[in-house]
Amino acid sequence: EESMLRAYVGKKAKTLNHMTCSLHANIGSVEDVAVALYYDAEGIGLFRTELLYMGKEQAPSEEEQFIIYKEVAEQMKGKEVTIRTLDVGGDKQIAYLNIQQEENPFLGYRAIRYCLDHQELFKTQLRALIRASAYGNIQIMFPMITAYEELIEAKAMLQEIKEELDRAGIAYNHHMKVGMMIETPASVILADQFAKEVDFFSIGSNDLIQYTMVADRMNTQVQKLYSPYYPAIIRAIHQVAKAAIANHIPVSICGEIASDHKLTNVWLNMGIHKLSVIPSGLLKLKHHICHMHTDNLHMDQLLQANTREEIINLLDK
Ligand code: PEP
Ligand code: MG
Q: What CA–CA distance (Å, rounded) separates 293 from 83?
């Protein structure tokens, strides 16, 4: 199988009816870049930066981070590299950040909420990212946005740092794109408004399913509800895709469901033409796309389905 899949290296992911999809990789470290390239990633769709902060005594310095982001950008040689700012909290605890025990960590003090309250920590990361943008095609992505104000505040901090760098004569990419994860129901509901403030959306289905279906992604007792095959999830993602298209910004999916072959046809039909998956899933997904048709799915029926079973039946047809 491996050698059959290797034949897809260098080929475009294109369906039999000529619809294309760009396939990006999710990574967690600079070492993962080589793996992503081995599996022919067209870009990095999600660099989870948490790992740089974990297993240490203190937060990585601006210089430490700069070196890593620069290295990733350079190794990707001008291909798109989407770097997500620190997504701490929830299941990702970092001792030295002193987040108190919470009754509901997934509904608590995490990601952008923590970062906006800890400006020194956040600005250190933003400065490293902006400086690294001079060495490749980096774009910044904010996690766990729920309120419009959070996005505006994060963007204002970026602007402030750019002005500081301008005054110091430090180079960076003045056209660097800024996007956000759509992974909370609030961001789905406000997607049309958010789309006017960012350059791209990336759908984080792992959290979006958890928060929309109100089912903990780790709790096996509610595993059945933690599924993309519910109408609420299909409709939520459709709504996000429509908002992105209407506002002419790209939209991708970077959660686990991007590698579910049963759903690829749904995403392409919705106009989502970028998927970001674990490196080892890239060629399998490309092989799948190269053998599929996108005109055999009844989108109207899918969007009108009432139950999980109806969705599954439509996808199995
Ligand atoms: C997601 O929520 O789908 C996502 C990609 O982010 P993470 O899995 O890191 O929470
Ligand atoms: Mg998430």
A: 32
pTM above 0.95, yes or no: yes
Q: For residue 196, count other CB atoms closer than 10 A to its CB.
A: 9
Cβ(50)–Cβ(84) below 8 Å = no
Which residue among the candidates 21, 115, 254, 290 is catalytic per the annotation? 254
Question: What integer pLDDT is reported at residue 3 of this predicted model?
Answer: 86
Name the 3-class secondary structure at 277: strand
d(CA 52, CA 42): 23
In this predicted model, what pLDDT tens digit does every residue of 266-304 receive, in sequence order? 999 999 999 999 999 999 999 999 999 999 999 999 999
Give residue 18 CA to ligand 1 midpoint distance, Å: 30
Task: Please tell me if the CB atom of residue 48 comes closer than 6 angstroms to any atom of ligand 1.
Answer: yes
Sign of CA dihedral 96, 73, 243, 275: negative
The ipTM value here is 0.99
